[in-house]
Amino acid sequence: MTTARHMSEPEAQAEISGGAIGGQDQPPRPEPPRGKKPGSSRRIVIGIVGGLAIAGIAASVVIPSIVRDKPVAVGEESTLEVLVPADINAALPTLDPGSSKAAVDDAKNCKVPLAWVTLTQRNGHGGMVRVRSGQHLSPPIKLSPAPQRVAIPYPAPYPTGRGVLTLVGEADQVGFYLTPGGVHDVNGTYPVNVRWQVRNPCP
User: Fold this and answer.
1) Would you say 166 and 192 are in contact if contact means Cβ atoms under 8 Å apart?
2) What share of the chain in percent tops pLDDT 90?
3) Distance CA 21, CA 120 (A)
4) Which tens digits make up the pLDDT trace of 60-76?
5) Cα–Cα distance between 104 and 198 in angstroms, integer?
6) Which residues make Cβ contacts (< 8 Å) with residue 93, sequence separation at least 6?
7) Rounded alpha-carbon distances, angstroms, from residue 71 to 6, 42, 119, 191
8) 0.85 cut: is pTM over it?
9) pLDDT, mean over the chain
10) How far apart are CA 165 and CA 136, in angstroms?
11) Which of 186, 147, 181, 146 minimizes the C-alpha distance to 166?
12) Can you list the alpha helix ranges (DSSP code H) found in the chain?
C-alpha cells in the first residue's frame, strides 16, 4: 500500500517557486526600451542635411542677385529729355559756345537733338556747379531755389541711347532733375547715369 507523502507548507512553496523559474509556460518578459529606433535618428539627420542644402541653394541664388543688381556708377539710370527745336535759341546762353557750336548746328539741322536738365538748390545754400556732358562743359551756373533749365549736348553718340552726365563744383543740396531726378551734395564731381530714347530729332 502506497503511502502519500505529505509536504510541509514551506516545501510546497519551494517546489512551486522552482517550477515557475524553470518551466516553459512562463510568458517572456518585454524588453526594456532602448531609446529611439535607428530609423528615426536617420530621418532627423537626413532632414537637417536636406535643410542645409536647400538653404545653401537659396543663398547661391539670392547673393549673386544682390551683387548683380548693384549699380556700376553712382545713382540710378535716369531719362534725359529732348530739347525741342523751337527752344534752341532761348537755351543758347546756358551752352558753352566753344564746345557746343557743332551740337547746336546739328540740332537746328535736325541731325542730332540737344537735351536739357533742370538745376535748383534747396534751402538757399548758394554755390556754383557746371554740367559735363561728353566733351562739353557748361558755363558756371549760380544755383538758387528757382529752377534753371540748362541745355546740353548728349554725353555719348546719340544712337547709343546711354551715357553719363557729371556735376562739377562745390555745392550742397543740388537738385538735378531728370526722370527720375535727385538731390546731391557735389564736392568735386558727381556722376549720374542717363539714358534716352533714340528718335527722329525733327518729327
Assistant:
1) yes
2) 47
3) 105
4) 333 222 222 233 334 47
5) 18
6) none
7) 108, 46, 23, 12
8) no
9) 73
10) 10
11) 186
12) 9-22, 38-68, 88-91, 97-108
Interior angle at CA 130, CA 125 and CA 133, nearest 5: 140
Give the DSSP H/E element, type plus range, for residue 192: strand 182-195
Q: Which three cell numbers stand for residue 63?
A: 547673393
Compute how many other C-beta atoms are within 10 angstroms of the C-beta atom of residue 41. Answer: 11
Give the total residue count for the chain.
Answer: 203
Report pLDDT for 198.
Answer: 94
199: nearest Cα among 79, 75, 76? 79
Query: Would you tell me how many other CB atoms lie within 10 Å of the CB of residue 148?
Result: 15
Q: In this predicted model, what pLDDT tens digit does every residue of 46-63 receive, in sequence order?
A: 454 444 444 333 333 332
Rounded Cα–Cα distance for residues 50 and 43 (Å) = 10
